[in-house]
Amino acid sequence: MEPAGQKQTAHSLFISDLHLCGSRPAITTQFLEFLRQQAAQAEALYILGDFFEYWAGDDDLAQHQPIIQALRELSNQGTRIYFMHGNRDFLIGEAFAQTAGLTILPDPTLLTLYGKRVLLSHGDALCTDDVAYQDFRQQVRSPAWQQTFLQQPLSVRKAQIEALRQRSEQEKSGKQESIMDVNAVAVDELLRRYEYPDLLIHGHTHRPALHELEVDGHKVKRWVLGDWYEQGSCLFADEAGFRHQPL
User: Fold this and answer.
1) What is the mean pLDDT of residues 16-25?
2) pLDDT: which is higher, 153 or 173
3) Cα–Cα distances in angstroms (integers) from residue 41 to residues 62, 79, 147, in the given order
4) What is the spatial distance between Cα 44 and Cα 26, in angstroms, rounded to a whole number?
5) Which of 15, 51, 123, 229 could bridge to 202 as Cys pair (CB 3.0-4.6 Å)?
6) What is the CATH code of the structural domain delimited by 12-244?
7) What is the pLDDT of residues 25-80, one digit of tens each?
8) Minimal CA–CA distance to 118: which of 204, 43, 216, 14?
9) How many of the other CB atoms lie within 10 Å of CB of 38?
């Protein structure tokens, strides 16, 4: 492997669902090593949501200082970093982005990479069979709800988030697995809306796989990123194509 700072052939990396938190320090350690090694060789790193287990607001930056500092160092070395909100960290704001040296992308985002039209999403908006979650998602993504929530003391926000997490885990145990996966019709509608990109890349479901779709006669590849609970998961992209990179 080349020393950090010396880029290999132009390539980009995609990750999601790290769920970084103090109770799983090994994942944070692996991620920091990933930044020093693999990400330092890339021209761009895309983090597609659920980067943190939860985010109570940008006034809690000090708790995550080692991660923020490592991101800033990577950015200063020349790797562009892009972040997309997930269902756990949708309250990450511009203060975090500026401190960490990254750019926040809207969900979804369409871009052209290595000659391919690539659509990026976290993926939770595609799980339309889970009606209760979609109602909750619409509520907490509204500017009015977020403004009211962020006006509360940090300790109160964290307590509310912990209560929501516990309720979510209880509700998951009673849901069918299929309900928590993406809905095929929702995927097709998204691909039509963006005029059949070559690839759709998303996370959220923790079901890493490559799905080869055909929508209205157009072939589209759907890459699902894996989570980092047991081992790191990363998608590597360059002029030769897109492929899973073991960590």
Assistant:
1) 95
2) 153
3) 28, 8, 39
4) 24
5) 123
6) 3.60.21.10
7) 999 999 999 999 999 999 999 999 999 999 999 999 998 999 999 999 999 999 99
8) 14
9) 21
